[in-house]
Amino acid sequence: MPAILHRTATRPVPLKTRPKHRIDREPKLDVGLIRKVLVRNSGSAWLPFEVRRRKTQRALRLQIQRYLQNTSRDDRSILQNDGRYRSLRRRHLNFKRSSTESMSLNIQEGRLDSVLGRLRAFASLDYLGYPKQLKNITHELRLQHDQQCPSWISMLFPNGDSTKMAENWMSFEPDLRAKIWPYLLIYLLEYQPDWALQFIRMLIEQPKIVYTPKLDMIADALTHISSIYTRRLRRVDANSQARDAEVASQLVPICYYFMQCGPAFRMFSQSFFYNMTRLADIEDLKLLLELLEGSPIFLLSATHLQFANTFAKAGEQDFALRCLKAVRSKTNDFKRYLKIVNREPFRWSCALLLRLSSRNGQNYHDMPALVAQIVEMGVQLDTLLYNVIMKNAMEAGDYSTAFQVFNTLSDHGLTPTEYTFATLLYGCTTSNEPAKYNDYAEHCLQQAKTLRYQWLAADYLYYHYICSYRSIDEWQDHDFQNLLGIYSEIFDTGPLELFFGPRIRRPATSEEENDTTSTFEPLPPVPLALYIMLQARIQVDLRISYHRVWELYLRFEKLVREKANPHINEMAMRPMIWNAFLLVCCRNQQFSHASHIMEEMRARGRQPNRYSWTMMMQAFFRAGQTAAGERIYGWMMTHGIEVTNFTHGAILIEYARNERYEDIGKIMDHADSEQLDPDVLGALGKVRDRWALLKEMQESEKRKKQEREADNQKMVDSRVARWRSLLEKMDLEMLKGREFKSLLPPAKQQTNEERSAPSSDAPVAQ
Question: What residue spans do the PPR repeats cover (predicted)?
């Protein structure tokens, strides 16, 4: 093991000659001198690097000055007790360095005994927590650890085993423990953050609290670990994600205990609580919120909004509202509060809560009360919030309310956006009689032409496609020509001419429209518009013969391979058009053609999705090749492809046709019995032995119930493992009414006096 350990530097090579300025005085850049130096050193990328660094440094210095003015305290008195201020100072330190530096952490030098030394050490660790924000714009500070740290770590974690860490730690002399723990913690944070979290938990569980003079170090260490795991959980590897999520879930109990047992209310920075919304279990996050609400911790409005967004996504509407309303209680100036709640971030949080509370028509009847609470908070409803209200109404089938809201926008001085028109127009296509909204559709067309909204124009084309689809039994050529006329009135026909030849003409218009039409430049087609036209052409050609559809596909494949048109290439990047041709092949049992399409999809960089594989599976079932269809289903289950009720329904129909009751029960273990399609229910209703089917369905429901109970018990056991040892050490009076009070061991009997008696070793809260 080398005597000095440090990370490999990734900073640019420093210039041989540098301007002789004191960086902390912030002189103006001598651009002429720097250019001469650049020419001499051939470092063309150095000038923008230095300009960005110094500009950010000046901005951070002004923030520090304003922060000190607002708190009316000096740097020394606030540095150790204010996590938000320490975070700002660390960032300023990183941008202040004019070259790569190193910091010795030799224990004999005692660098970590001072708060400034700890500040520099954590500033270096920020390069691991925020690499993108720092590595390309600042000079790194390398840590040189004490040469005894590796041997001490190997004694604490022999062969990487952490089960006896506390026992091994107590084998050290008390004076040595008090002296070396900060240096071991920094070492672990840099090289083994998993062990660092366990080390912190062991420290705060010790009867003798040796970290009391360095509470800021524990808080900053937990913040650093939270940033590390927030980055790790973005990885694609599912196994690593699950392992990291399990370790990261221990952060909330440790933080909770640390904040209850010491003067740590202002020790944490805002980034810690922001990260916890991404790492914590939703039930643990509720407990953390309750602790924050009853403490003097100051949370920025952005942090409150992050909590609100997390609870809204988890379906916890009441907790999300509590977070939004907490912004008012933390703001003394009412005028400033009104500015905060009417800014875009707060509005987006309200929109998210409003949207998710009534998604897919669920709980739509609760939406008026929720809107009233949002208005009571001082939020003025804008186009964004009205769009969400109309979206929820359309999904719930309340078309009249949606249009009433739309008609009142002008009364409130609001202008509809492209999303407003598209929301209502798409909602019209879901009604039983879409044709009765034709006047509104024509209004959308005029808006799309005037404001050149490509996607709104595509929605208008889709509206007419749905109207035609609902009104005819089979697609005829004149139906396609009518749709083609609508397309050519709006979009550029160049891409379609590559399919159908240069005979596409724009439809004739009335004399009143001639002036507008002559000046209208066709819009470039979006992928949806091209897909609609090809889908309509497939329907027409399929009525004549399958070979015409296959010829259309070969033409499409050739155009994609030759990259003949960028709009066609963009459409080909989505699996939707490939699946349209694949469906025709599967329904006609053309398996060689279907396999060719799926291979071509892979060659074009588009992997077949769950609908592609389900169509292949259905085709094999209909051809009597049940074993082949089952192999596809098994392959989907084992390769991580999302299997929905659409896939389950296809295999259930096949098993019902073959009277395979036991296999039906096995599939029902994975399917949602309340969301089965009518075709599936019809197939199940035609079986001969209904008692056998009913028995298997009941057995399946029992198995699913047992699995849910096992999952719930696993979650409870996981929470017990995270919280139990810490809760046993806490004052039970603090936990009165808390949900996790039931996690305490019932076997340990104590009197109320014993439970409420504080430990003599615990620090006094400040």
Answer: 382-416, 574-608, 609-643
Full domain range(s) for residue 264: 148-298
Q: Which two three-digit tokens encode residue 646?
A: 């659409």
The residue from 112, 144, 176 where one domain ends is 144
Query: Do residues 98 and 159 both lie within one domain?
Result: no
Note the pLDDT tens digit of each residue in 221-236.
999 999 999 888 876 5
Report phi then psi at 586, rounded to 5.
-70, -40
pTM, 2 dp: 0.81
Question: Which amino acid does the sequence have at 88?
Answer: L
Same domain, 126 and 10: yes
Tokens matching residue 455: 């996607």
pLDDT score of 654 more than 60:
yes
3-state secondary structure of 263: coil
Nearest-angstrom CA–CA distance, 237 and 162: 24
Are residues 83 and 269 in contact, defined by beta-carbon separation less than 8 angstroms? yes
Residue 265 falls inside a structural domain: yes
Rounded to whole angstroms, the Cα distance separating 553 from 394 reads 36
Residue by residue, DSSP assigns 301-319 as HHHHHHHHHHHHHTT-HHH
Alpha carbon of residue 130 to chain centroid? 18
Check: CB of residue 342 under 8 Å from CB of residue 379: yes
Sequence-distant contacts of 603-609: CB under 8 A, at least 24 apart:
604/560, 604/572, 604/573, 605/573, 606/572, 606/573, 606/574, 606/575, 606/578, 607/575, 608/575, 608/578, 609/575, 609/579, 609/641
The secondary structure of the chain in percent helix, strand, coil, rounded to multiples of 5, reads 70, 0, 30
Q: How far apart, in whole angstroms, are the C-alpha atoms of residue 663 and residue 630?
A: 11
Alpha-carbon distances of 70 from 133, 264, 340, rounded to whole Å: 27, 21, 19
Distance (Å) of CA 68 to CA 55, 72, 77, 87, 382: 21, 6, 10, 14, 37
15 shares a domain with 100: yes
| Residue 532 domain flag | no
3-state secondary structure string, 583-601? Answer: HHHHHCCCHHHHHHHHHHH
Do 107 and 183 share a domain, yes or no? no
Beta strands 141-145; 101-105: pairing state: parallel
Q: Which two tokens stand for residue 501?
A: 């030849």
Helix, strand, or coil here: 157?
coil
- Token pair 């020419």 is at which residue? 39
**Which residues lie closer than 8 Å to 704 by C-beta, 6 or more apart?**
669
Ordered DSSP codes for 317-385: HHHHHHHHHHHHHT---HHHHHHHHTSHHHHHHHHHHHHHHTGGGTTGGGHHHHHHHHHHTTPPP-HHH
Of 103, 121, 144, the position where a domain reaches its end is 144
CA proximity to 106, closest of 186, 28, 16, 194? 186
pLDDT tens, 594-607? 999 999 998 888 88
Q: Exposed, middle or buried, 541 (CB in 10 Å: 0-12/13-18/19+)?
A: buried
How many domains, in total, are found in the chain? 2
Token digits of residue 714: 């696993």
Residue 386: half-sphere exposure toward Cβ, Cα within 13 Å = 25
Residue 503 carries which side chain, given as an amino acid letter?
Answer: R
Mean pLDDT for the stretch of residues 62-83 = 82
Q: Which residues have CB under 8 Å from 630's CB, separation 6+?
A: 651
With respect to residue 304, please indicate whether it lies within any of the assigned structural domains: no
